[in-house]
Amino acid sequence: MATPHDALTEVPHLLLRRPVRDIASGTEGTLMAVLIENTASAGCPERWAEIAYIRPDGGGVELSTAVANVAAR
Fold it and tell me: Which of 2, 41, 56, 64 is the most exposed place for a label (fewest CB within 10 A)?
């Protein structure tokens, strides 16, 4: 099946490598990447979305969130 995007395609974003806040969780950190990912559940039609990855201040595991939830600090 053809996809509208290559899986895990990186998307340019103005806030890459800058301090950001995830408005959904309140997590603050650095925006490390924005990728296009298929977010559909198994057995469902494909659903492509831009997913942001934020590395929390102080390190740790990167948080994923919808790119619309990312705000500059």
Answer: 2
Between CA 33 and CA 18 the distance in angstroms is 11
pLDDT in tens, the chain (73 residues): 345 556 678 999 999 999 999 999 999 999 999 999 988 899 999 999 999 999 999 999 999 999 999 999 9
Question: Which amino acid, one-letter code, is at 57?
Answer: D
Question: HSE-up of 60 (CA within 13 Å, CB side)?
Answer: 10
CA atoms within 13 A on the CB side of 67: 17
Q: In Å, what is the CA distance from 68 to each residue of 1, 33, 37, 42?
A: 28, 14, 14, 24
pTM above 0.90, yes or no: no
Token output for 56: 């929390």
